[in-house]
């Protein structure tokens, strides 16, 4: 599955979801397609799950809300190991991603 | 509906206006074309047929003309050749008769010379008869002797033959006596044969006495016309060279140009008679034939020859002429002379007056370059002359007559062929040819006229027949054209009458069914247009209704937004409220990205302290604004209830917001931090952006709040994540609180403003009052953003310890 525009690109390779570019969609409704993609990957009941954010240059607060909501949903699958990949190069990630770990202990945060 | 129907009809009318008119154009109607085609076909075939006929007639007439011309030319030439030969023979005969008489006289004279005794006896005998003895008298004035008038012949003895006493030398006297036979013989010769002017005897060079029959004042005339003749030898004076030529002939007869002794003088004007004459000389020889002994001669006028020549009549104006070999024309009619462009000049010779009228000097080039025929041959030439200013073709036939010895002044004796020439105008020779050609031409003309008349007549007949025929043929098409015109004008009920079963009838049937279909289609179209128009009208009504509704809702929505925004602005702390806080100089700046912002900040005053909150609701717009209002209200309530513990404060706030978010299904949360000031210290709690403190000495402290709290409204219980930290905040210290709308503001080239720029900007102006610091930061931020779109709400709060 892949959602692609001139500004951003979200796609999955198996249970790894890649985020790329700038996500500045207005409101939760606008993020619905991306959420559906993530839920679809989750619905496949994978052995593990990886959210690769290393190429996501910008994510606005609605996008962060999306990640938080998805993380809360992941708590219903405590057996599923989740890895979130971030980059120190991108300011918002080190600021916002730790909250995901706070929400769900099963989230392994790797910021490199 | 009515509008659309009319529009449709107008389109059809315009379509017909663009079509060429069916009737009226010269070559547009099928019938005209049909007639033109038939006319052209018939005309073409007739013209081709007529043309071939005309060509054949032309060729025939040309061939006939050529045949006739060739035949006529041959016949004419044969006729002329025969005629000129005959005339030539007649001329020769004429000359021969003269020659015969001269020869006769010469033979008689010669025989007397050869028998001197007989001559003496004859003379002695004759002297006994009156009239035969010459009574010579001496003319002392002129110094010559001549017999008296009344004698049959005149005898002149020149001065150089007399002695000093004016008496004849004895040999001369004898010679005179020896010529007395002349009076006996010559009169009979004179009256017989050809008309002769005179016959005469001239003695040998040593005594050139001259006896001439009939008598004339010979010596007197000579003295008058030829002065000096009496003092020079007669032969040398009058005919130089003749005598010597004869002497050479005597030695070798083969040197004669023509094998006869007769010598002819070229025509000249006779001194005595004044007539144009020709003289025939016959030499006499001594008995021993060793010397010339004078001559007998005869003068003949050219009249007889002229008569012969003038008697020649060919066609209407054809004539003949006689010329010498050198082209000198001897006899010709005045008309002929003029026609051939000849001019007469008199040439004076030594003793006689010559005659010059040469063809070679004709004023016409063709005539001047005429070639002379060879002896025995006949030439036929066509020449062009000019008569009355118009060119005129002449046929010139020439034929030489028998050659003769001819003496000419300064030239001596040479063979001479006199030329007989016939001249006939072409128009007369070819009169019959021209007549035939004229007849052929007129016949051709009448044939041409006949062909043309038949071509035109047949064409008229064909056209006359094809017009009603074409009317029949094209009636169906005309009906069709009319019907199509009516159809074009919107008469969809039109039908054409269909007769017969030809293609036109088939087209007619097809047209009828087409017209019916068009009528049905048109009716259906009108029906459908009406239907569609009605649907459109109702849709339009619906649209209008919806539009009105939307306008209402929009207004209402606008009003609601206005209200929300006003409420939001109203709950923001007023500047006056901020100034009530004794220790703190507070300035704020808030600019929502939409009409209603999602950022939150508040300053709550308590005696001896203050609580400053700053937060950022995810998203913006009305829902974010409402969530912010809730946060503000709950905060206010908690504050008023005296909840001072920062963790408790945040915990209760989170619970109430979380429950409200759940109830309202608002998919939002917020970051939120509080700064509590009291007694030169600040306690910071809650998770939000970094808190920047610029100390009075310019030192910068950046306090991370990530571990001091958790997003509000996301989790039901965040108690475990809550914490607080307390730092000193003394006089001159500056605190900067902000939302990510500032640090993540993009420049035109996509760079984020960032916290470092914010810190630098605050530090640059930290000694200023809070209001100026905030203004400096915002100005710097504005400069950074430039014309770039502002994506997020921007909120800035600056606190400065007084």
UniProtKB/TrEMBL annotation, chain A:
Name by which UniProt lists this protein: STAS domain-containing protein
UniProt organism field: Aestuariivirga litoralis
Entry-linked Pfam families: STAS
Domain STAS as annotated: residue spans: 17-112
